[in-house]
Amino acid sequence: MKKLIFTLLLGVLPMGLFAKKNPEQIFWKWFQKNESKFFDLEKDKDNLLDKLSKELTKYKDGLTYEVSTVESGKRELIISADGLKEIFPSVEALVTSAPELNRWKVIAFRPRHKDYADFVLNYEEEEFDPSKIWIYYRVEDGFFDLALYHPAYDEKERNLYVSASYILLDTALGEYDVTMNVRYIDHRKLPKNPQEEGLTPFSKLSEKFDKYKKIHRSNL
Prior knowledge:
It contains seven helices and nine strands, in the order αααββαβββββααββα.
């Protein structure tokens, strides 16, 4: 009889009592528990950012982030795949499942910036000034292809220029569009007379890309 009673009681237990939390819930529970520390980030910046990196890696290896300064009582937490297309779904799943956070705005992928042409990037002790970079773009078979021309480009340092350029491109177009809607990206040495060579200033990139996207990729 005792065994029968136990079985009956077990049968009426809530269905979700023993359900495991999904990875998104685990991450956000941890973040909510530490939210006040991250909002006051500057008090222990290096330690806190290291912890955030480790928790994101636990959720999905390869994810990274950016934390904005405080504006109007809020910070932005940007979750990024760092341009790795194969983990884009993880970014989207994590951001979509974010709880309501009064002092935070959670954003999927690095967003574009209106003033991207004024943003001088210091990367690996090198300076990358968008005002000195030119581009060549073409639309072929409905796809957007792009070449960036740097004044000090050196093929031996190609990896440096590639990495820095992707950061600049994210500020110009946003991480999602750079990865999903630009088919081809190359890097070259800037010629002496870029305008005569048919090149376009980097500052015009978002304008040219948006025009292309409106015509060719309006269904995206």
